[in-house]
Write a structure and sequence with these properties.
- With 94 residues, the protein is α+β, with helices and mostly antiparallel strands.
- It has a domain at 33-91.
- The protein has helices at residues 2-25, 59-73; strands at 33-38, 41-46, 54-56, 76-80, 86-91.
- It is elongated and about 70 Å long.
Length: 94
């Protein structure tokens, strides 16, 4: 019985270490930039923000702005369709 308890204790310790380390590695807010439909045009919005970063008439202009920000902060650009679904994702986290 002692060996079983010892084994279980070791397993519990390992699980605690795993889950505690995964919590520390979680990033807080990210700098991912979303290109989203907005009013009559497009907007760039940082992930998690309600406010928009910039407004644009064309999606291509919004994408260019989002790419500039994503490169600066080593983040991703998530491009949405006019319907709201995700069309593409570009990563700059090198």
């Amino acid at each position: 019985m002692s060996k079983v308890n010892s084994w279980l204790r070791t397993l519990v310790d390992l699980l605690e270490v795993f889950f505690n380390s995964s919590q520390r590695n979680k990033r807080g807010r990210t700098w991912h930039q979303h290109v989203v439909p907005y009013e009559e045009g497009w907007a760039v919005r940082r992930e998690g923000n309600k406010r928009i970063t910039s407004k644009h008439r064309k999606q291509s202009t919004a994408i260019r702005k989002a790419k500039t920000l994503a490169r600066k902060y080593k983040a991703d650009v998530i491009i949405h369709r006019a319907s709201g679904g995700i069309r593409d994702r570009i990563s700059y986290d090198d």
